[in-house]
Structures are given as structure tokens and as C-alpha cells.
Amino acid sequence: QAQLVESGGGLVQAGGSLILSCAVSGRAFSAFAVGWFRQVLGKEREFVAAIGRSGVKPRYADSVKGRFAISRDNAKNTVYLQMNSLKPEDAAVYYCAANMIDYASVYDSHYNYWGQGTQVTVSS
């Protein structure tokens, strides 16, 4: 099993930046693919970014490509989402998800383990 805890959300003005963290407990962190998804109240959950094992290129949603960057630190069992040039449309609850797969999946159904979410609010 694996447990995921997101942190780093908060309130930021449009154009600002935030770094989200996803701490993953488990003895095989390096074998997990990890994705970031976001959800607005009343809307479907949507893919943001995903990173796989070493050697697998990360994937990004078109809406965040060039602004967001996903990375992982296997020594700390943590995945990060650097969010720059934030827009009001980026406001959502952000979730990280993981599964022991060998690719960076864009599909939420491919992930078995989910965090509790962290709120990102973008003003003005």
C-alpha cells in the first residue's frame, strides 16, 4: 500500500507561483508513477501532470504546459508540482495520485492511491 499527502496549496494572486508537494509513504517509491489532477466544485477531475519512473518523460495537460513543472526526489519520497504564472482558471483542489506502473499516465483511472487534496486559490 501507499499513502499520499499533498501540501503547499494556498492563496496566490494571478501571475504568482506556488509549489505543491506530494509525500508518498511506501517502500517502493521509485517504482511508482505519480500524477497530479485537479478538480473544481461541480466539474470533472482533470489531468494536470504526471511523472513516471526514471527514463520516462513527464506529461502535461495543454492548459499548463510551459507554466507547470513536475519533478520527483526519490531520496525524499516526494513529488513536486511547480506552478508559475497562475491564472484564475487554475484554482482548484489539487490531488496527487500514484500507482506502480511504468509510464506517466494521464488517466485518473490508472492510479490506485490518492492523497486528500490541497486547495489552490487564485485571486483577481
What would your notes on this structure say?
By secondary structure, the chain is mostly beta strands. It is 0% helix and 48% strand. The protein has no helices and eleven strands. The chain has strands at 3-7, 10-13, 18-25, 33-39, 46-51, 59-60, 68-73, 78-83, 92-99, 113-114, 118-123. Strands 2, 4, 5, 6, 9, 10 and 11 form a seven-stranded mixed sheet that branches. A four-stranded antiparallel sheet has the order 1-3-8-7, with no helix packed on it. A hairpin with a 6-residue loop joins strand 4 (33-39) and strand 5. The model has no long low-confidence stretch (mean pLDDT 95).
Radius of gyration: 13 Å
What is the terminal separation in angstroms?
41 Å
Instruction: Summarize model confidence as the mean pLDDT.
Output: 95
| Large-scale geometry | globular
DSSP E strands, number: 11
Note the run of SSEs as H and E: EEEEEEEEEEE
Number of helices: 0
Give a brief outline of the structure.
With 124 residues, the chain is mostly beta strands.
Architecture blueprint of SSEs:
Blueprint (H helix, E strand, L loop, with lengths): L2 E5 L2 E4 L4 E8 L7 E7 L6 E6 L7 E2 L7 E6 L4 E6 L8 E8 L13 E2 L3 E6 L1
Parallel strand pairs: 2-11
Antiparallel strand pairs: 1-3, 3-8, 4-5, 4-9, 5-6, 7-8, 9-10, 9-11
Q: Which terms would index this structure?
A:
124 residues; seven-stranded mixed sheet; four-stranded antiparallel sheet; mainly beta; 0% helix
